[in-house]
Amino acid sequence: MKQESRGKLAKLKGRVKEAAGVLTGDEKLERDGARERAAGAIQESVGKARRKVGELVTGVGKAIKR
């Protein structure tokens, strides 16, 4: 869950930087923002996948106990 949240935050920060770069004409800031947004999206996806695997393992464990 933490990784998912950090990914969302990084995505948001990247979008803000990217938009600021577009508005100011700062191509480096725009590129950095796009990279940070993409990295955040990947981190969020990995966090979601880890959470889903955890839920699956928990479900299997509960099914075995029955």
Account of the 3D structure:
This protein is mainly α and 66 residues long. It has one domain (2-65). 94% of the residues lie in helices and 0% in strands. The protein has two helices and no strands. It has helices at residues 2-24, 27-65. Helix 1 runs antiparallel to helix 2 (27-65). The two termini are 27 Å apart. The mean pLDDT is 93.
SSE inventory with pairings:
Elements: H1 2-24, H2 27-65
Order of helices and strands: HH
Which stretches are low in confidence, meaning pLDDT under 50 for 5 or more residues running? none
Termini separation (Å)?
A: 27 Å
Q: Class by helix and strand content?
A: mainly alpha
Count of the separate structural domains: 1
Number of helices: 2
Mean pLDDT: 93
Strand content: under 5%
Q: How many DSSP-defined strands?
A: 0
Please state the CA-atom Rg, rounded to the nearest Å. Answer: 17 Å
Task: Tell me, briefly, the overall form.
Answer: rod-shaped
Helical residue percent? over 70%
Q: What is the subunit organization of this protein?
A: single chain
The largest pleated sheet is described as: none
Features:
94% helix; mainly alpha; 2 helices; 0% strand; 66 residues
Question: Summary?
Answer:
The chain has 66 residues and is an all-alpha fold.
